[in-house]
Design a protein that fits this description.
Elements (H helix, E strand, L loop, with lengths): L11 H7 L5 H8 L7 E5 L5 H6 L5 E6 L2 H5 L7 E5 L12 E7 L7 H11 E12 L6 H14 L8 H5 L10 E2 L5 E8 L1 H8 L3 H10 L3 H9 L9 E13 L2
């Protein structure tokens, strides 16, 4: 089994501040397919944003991540229990969960080992929902600059697993009975240029770039974007969200 990659501990506080939150429509869609409301597992929970929402619907939520720093910055809820645990090897009992969620993380996992663990800890008929979000869109002028930054400046510094995001999880193995049509959603945010800068600094490719070159590429990017996005100006930023949802039988 490959060693897990921890790419977000260093910027855990910024990750919590700037990473976009998922729309309530996404949770409504998932919950329509879930039979029970006793127990959910949010795997690769990061800052706990998904676990905190699930806590309003389930009696108990277990939330796991390999990053202790991420969990130190996680959202606190009385019925959410955080643990530093690998996705593929957990301490949970068999037949425990009604729902398992993985947001923007499954592409880092060992697929076969994780799916075996999903089968082990799921109740019969439980739901596995995995989703992620792609490159954001603003307007044609900003998008052109961001696309170059994404593909050319930071392109060589993305881990290989990033391709699964670009392919919207269509190419990941998913050996479960998929429910209904493939759904997509949109995250919409109103951002200033400072918020865009904060978000870009959380990119793992930016961190790799900085480690190799000793400089932050986001600074030069923001100077370029300022030609079409004034400081203090608010623009709508949209992230495409894609999902695979399956039933464990």
């Amino acid at each position: 089994m490959k060693q897990p990659k921890d790419l977000f501990s260093k910027q855990a506080a910024a990750y919590r501040q700037y990473r976009p939150e998922y729309p309530l429509e996404l949770y409504d869609f998932i919950l329509r397919h879930v039979k029970g409301r006793e127990s959910a597992w949010d795997c690769g929970t990061g800052n706990g944003q998904v676990a905190a929402v699930l806590a309003d619907y389930f009696q108990e939520v277990d939330a796991t991540d390999i990053s202790e720093n991420q969990l130190k910055n996680a959202i606190d809820k009385d019925n959410v229990y955080y643990q530093v645990v690998r996705a593929e090897q957990t301490p949970f009992d068999k037949n425990t969960f009604d729902l398992i969620t993985v947001a923007q993380a499954i592409h880092w996992f060992n697929f076969d080992a994780f799916y075996n663990e999903v089968r082990r800890v799921s109740k019969k008929g439980a739901v596995l929902a995995v989703w992620g979000y792609g490159l954001f869109r603003v307007d044609p002028e900003v998008d052109r600059i961001i696309d170059y930054f994404y593909k050319q400046t930071t392109g060589p510094y993305w881990d290989n697993e990033r391709r699964y995001i670009d392919e919207e999880y269509r190419t990941i193995p998913f050996p479960f009975q998929e429910e209904g049509e493939r759904k997509s959603f949109t995250i919409s945010r109103q951002w200033t240029l400072a918020e865009l800068e904060g978000f870009l600094k959380t990119w793992s490719a930016v961190q790799h770039y900085m480690k190799e070159k000793g400089e932050n590429p986001v600074k030069a990017l923001i100077e370029q974007v300022q030609s079409v996005w004034m400081p203090g100006e608010i623009k709508e930023v949209s992230f495409p969200v894609f999902m695979r949802l399956g039933r464990v039988v």
